[in-house]
Amino acid sequence: MEVAASFARLSSPSPALFSVMNCVKHSNPNRIKLSFSNSRCASICAFAERSSGSNTEVFLDHAKVETILDSVKWDSKGLAVAIAQNIDTGSILMQGFANRDALEKTIVSRKATFYSRSRSSLWTKGETSMNFINVHDVYLDCDRDSIIYLGKPDGPTCHTGAETCYYTSVYDVLESSKEGKEERLAKTTLYSLEATISKRKVEAETLPNGKPSWTKKLLLDQELLGSKVREEAGELIQTLLDNEDKGCTASEMADLLYHSMVLLNLKDVSIEEVLEVLRKRFSQSGLEEKNSRKKT
Amino acid sequence: MEVAASFARLSSPSPALFSVMNCVKHSNPNRIKLSFSNSRCASICAFAERSSGSNTEVFLDHAKVETILDSVKWDSKGLAVAIAQNIDTGSILMQGFANRDALEKTIVSRKATFYSRSRSSLWTKGETSMNFINVHDVYLDCDRDSIIYLGKPDGPTCHTGAETCYYTSVYDVLESSKEGKEERLAKTTLYSLEATISKRKVEAETLPNGKPSWTKKLLLDQELLGSKVREEAGELIQTLLDNEDKGCTASEMADLLYHSMVLLNLKDVSIEEVLEVLRKRFSQSGLEEKNSRKKT
Lengths: 296, 296
Fold this sequence. Notes:
Two copies of one chain form a homodimer.
Chain A: E1 3-8, E2 23-27, E3 31-36, E4 44-48, E5 57-61, H1 62-71, E6 80-86, E7 92-98, H2 100-109, E8 113-116, E9 121-124, E10 133-141, E11 146-153, E12 166-169, H3 170-175, H4 189-206, H5 214-220, H6 222-241, H7 246-266, H8 271-283, H9 286-295
Parallel strand pairs in A: 6-11
Antiparallel strand pairs in A: 1-3, 2-5, 3-4, 6-7, 8-9, 10-11
Helix pairs in contact in A: 1-2, 4-5, 4-7, 6-7
């Protein structure tokens, strides 16, 4: 079996980007073609198919960088809001402010860099903690006064050690009878479900006689879990082959996703790790991918 | 077959929340237990299992809301950054500023509300376009000067009609030889892949003789696609049963996800729709879920 997929570039960061003066290079695999051989999980052979057919590198034009910096609507203090977001999970990691130098440094270095209003100086997230945010892309909003640093964090972003800086839910506080309500990271749907499955695993281990739940049953019975994943995949396929309505497909995909996520939990694999695999598969050049496999 | 799942609350918005004076109610299905009967895609029977055993409603205490508003570190102009994020996809929809009144109105009304610095007045996103952002949760950051409105948009958020306000990639601009580079929404990994699959579908339809790719092959051959989804599900299960390493599980899940997403594309179903199904399943009360099914 051969799998050959051609994908558009998902943005990817360059490992070493500071370069001389006016000219900054980074890799630009515009188009990527992948061949997978079928020794399951053993070999993925990917090669880059670039427009020029060679190992093209794009040189960032300093004049163009200046034009972009000029296009930002800096406020009266010379600042714009800069939001760092995890490229795989979508989590908002932190929010700070950028001035012209901070944005330029981020674009060039691909490390999320902000302007500290309290210290009146630039700071690159991670310069102390080493938990850098490796920037894959930078987005400006329609008004050009708000910036997203879309990147991959090396570790927890918050100075408290939390994964992100957003762990205080207003409604949790309002609903809590006590002051010391448990902190809960802001999570979107997939990651809330992932957290719930993890909680069930802990309960299954610590409260074996507690209330049974479907998730716990699956966690405790690998044969059952395997048969459910297989069944849900079959049902999803059937919605296609039987031309069932969209709602059925969405519902069956939801079932498949949930049951697969229970399996991931048992294997101690996060959705983020899965997404990282997908991103790397579809953004790296073949050489990079091959080298990264040699290292692991 | 019976599927009974017990999940912790995923935050959910209340449809009508403005209420008298000091007391605001919203639904609080603390614990939810779901039973699915197996007439595939036909009946999902869910019931809420709340701590009190009854249809508990939580009344927001005005004094507590005030305490939260007091705890925010408003800047010299009385503002804090407010970021609206899609609860299902994680997309950052827009960023504005909130003052005390805007945050209070958001907490109470569950519609994302900001303070317009240009008009010096409150504005609720959607009051003109009707594309409200229905807020499921509100998060404060560690420094208490940055806010996330985690919600579900009724439609495109940007005044330009774009799904979000972030559609200008700095690196796209830098790499482009022309000025008029195609706009590209900021998308995290899963949604970049989804967009790429959509692109392949358009190519398959408009350029039937164009370069073949695995995605195009799958899009054009439902039998092949079905067999691949089944195969990848089997391989994922095998990593569990054979106790293969974590990396294999992540890789097989990535395969399953990708192939399932091609199937979703053929059925014109977005990942966001699937996540919405998951969220509703695990956050609604049984009655709400039953009623919503009757309507559709």
